[in-house]
Specification:
There is one protein chain. The chain has 168 residues and is of the alpha/beta class. The chain has one domain. The chain is built from two helices and ten strands. The strands form two sheets. A six-stranded mixed sheet has the order 1-5-6-7-8-9. The longest helix is centred in the middle third of the chain and has 19 residues. It starts with 11 loop residues before the first strand and ends with a strand.
Length: 168
């Protein structure tokens, strides 16, 4: 069954010069909450988005919003969301971890999501497609992930940044 990443009732649009992306820890009674834009409470921000040119930016939450199934019928891995502006896409994975393994986990989620996106959408119709792995507890990329970043580019054909700051 086709998957439309853009047919999303939870999408949000902003033109703010600076805003955050959040993926709250889900409460027990509602474990499937999607990521979202937060414009005011900077303490909640996992990713910080700089939009100096005041572009119209739309955020499409993917995890907990879009069902992407593997051939065996099980849910596939998904990143937290997708930023779209003009003809540019940035796939975003949000982490709030201070333990080992978050880079590999996040890059894997991004790779799988981009692969699935390309299966259902004309990726060539965009001027650029990038990926961003953000960790609130580790705001800057660690030197040791350089090899992982190069491998991501080789496997997907797209650049990935491991940094909490996203520039539109």
């Amino acid at each position: 069954m086709p998957v439309d990443f853009f047919d999303n009732p939870h999408k949000e649009t902003t033109r703010k010069p600076r805003f955050g992306l959040c993926d709250d820890v889900a409460p027990v009674d509602c474990p499937h909450t999607p990521a979202y834009i937060e414009e005011a409470d900077e303490d909640k921000w996992t990713a910080v988005v700089a939009n100096a040119n005041l572009k119209t930016v739309t955020f499409y939450p993917i995890d907990n919003c879009i069902e992407v199934l593997r051939p065996d019928g099980q849910m596939d891995n998904r990143c937290d969301g997708l930023l779209e502006y003009d003809k540019h896409l940035i796939f975003v994975e949000l982490k709030d971890r201070d333990c080992q393994g978050w880079v590999g986990d996040g890059l894997n989620q991004l790779k799988i999501t981009i692969r699935n996106f390309k299966a259902y959408h004309a990726a060539g119709s965009y001027d650029s497609i990038k990926a961003q792995l953000c960790n609130k507890q580790r705001p800057r990329a660690v030197v040791s992930c350089k090899v992982d970043i190069e491998k991501f580019k080789d496997e997907t054909g797209h650049k990935v940044s491991v940094d909490r700051n996203i520039t539109i």
